Model the fold of this input.
Amino acid sequence: MAVVTPGGLDPAGVATTKAPAASPATPIAGRRWDRAVLLFLGPTALLMLVFLIYPTIYTIALSFNRGRRGEFTEWVGLQHYIGLLNDKAFINLSTFPPSGAIWNNVLWAIFYTGFVIFLGLVVAVLASRVRYESIIKAVVFLPMAIAATALAIIWNFVYAPDPNIGLLNAILDPFTSGSISWLGSPALVNAALIAAGIWGSVGFATVILSAALKSIPGEVLEAARTDGANERQIFFRIILPMVSLPISVLAVTLLVNVIKLFDLIYVLTNGGPGVSSRVIAFTMYYESIPGGQFGRGAAITVVMLLLLIPIMAFNIRRFRSSKVV
Done:
């Protein structure tokens, strides 16, 4: 016979309706999750600390020191930075147009970045309308498969002043009274170097922008043509806005390459004639390695870092505010 309590409840029923005890699995799972985080992120954090954070702090500290042979010898405060502002080889605003390494980087940023994006977009759009698109893109991309040093050597032959060696002077020889020293003239050297850089990077821009163009739905373009839009209107009002994010990412990548540009300058001109073709990264190398002024070279590196920060901040903000097409 069942025993009923004064409240009318069966004790067995009361026992079965009790809340279950808290499972000890939750804290154990949390501890396992913490171990997994440390296992995966620990090596990455260690590598960043050793190869990124520590060198950055060391370089910034060294920029305030004389830094002979890369060692801390004598603290000089802002002396290196003040010296760079007064160094006409680094920046010279007393003439028009200005000159110096920073100005040469500005020229690279404007013309190299602009022409690479423009030509890459033109080739991508035109190649998408022919049968042999893959062959065209492979040919245009071929310079990207060449090492920068080899690319510089190729263009050294192109710009050679002897018409028997230099391709460009051989082509222009019937129309000019003498050979042109493309890499020996301060007025021409930066344009010649930028042209070589454009030739080596158009293929990269073409591949990136071609992939962006293929992500545009075909129905959108067909609807625009059905509504009477011509190809010019389709390009400027549909295609260009829809690939604006890939273009901005490509522009940031090219600008970063411009700021750290070194190998092409080193092989083709070694910063010459004189200091006409020096850029910031080459000046940093020249002051540090041949000159032995590591403190001054570290100050130039900090300038490069300060120039990169707003570019990367713009890129992050662009990603957060835009949708990838």
Notes: Confidence is low (pLDDT under 50) at residues 1-7, 11-17. Residues 25-62 form the longest helix (38 residues). Residues 173 and 311 are 43 Å apart (CA to CA).
